[in-house]
Amino acid sequence: MRRLCNSINRQHGGEAWRDVDELGMWLRREGYDVGRLTPRDLDELLALRDAMWRSITGRSIAPLASALEHLRFRPVVDDHVLRLVAEGSMADIVAGRLVAVVVDAQTTGAWDRVKACAQCSWVFIDASRNRSGRWCSMSACGGREKARAYRARRRTGGSGT
To answer: How far apart are CA 95 and CA 97, in angstroms?
Structure first.
């Protein structure tokens, strides 16, 4: 879910999926057995990525749920483990895997740790003990934000500590 959301750079506008060929390469790197992709697959996965990001930033599963309501699943037994697998287009199959990841994250409590960086909007897993992380990286975004706050305090005559 994190890599899906981070396939676009919301701060600088970089897009990993400019066409179906780039989407296919990305999906293969992510371990999907990709057949023929269509422009519709691209459009649906762009919409899914946006819905996932809105669910994370809005702390509500509703945007993602509405993007997934059309999915159909079938039960599959794989190595004595029962799984639900989405049927349909490549976009539906990717969406089905995302559903499994989100359900697992909600079940284990990890969903509350999935956040978007306050500085760059990159999706990250908050590993802080009290779940108060705001930045994807303290060395990058956190450091920049703290430096900006320090400079603002200095300009206004506030404490520099």
So the answer is: 5
Report how far apart, in Å, the C-alpha atoms of 108 and of each of 10, 40, 98, 101, 105 are: 28, 33, 15, 11, 5
pTM confidence score? 0.85
Tokens linked to 136: 């994807």
Question: What is the pLDDT at residue 150?
Answer: 79
Q: What angle do CA 17, 71, 77 make, to 5 degrees?
A: 100
pLDDT mean across residues, the chain: 91
Sequence spans of domains, the chain:
2-112
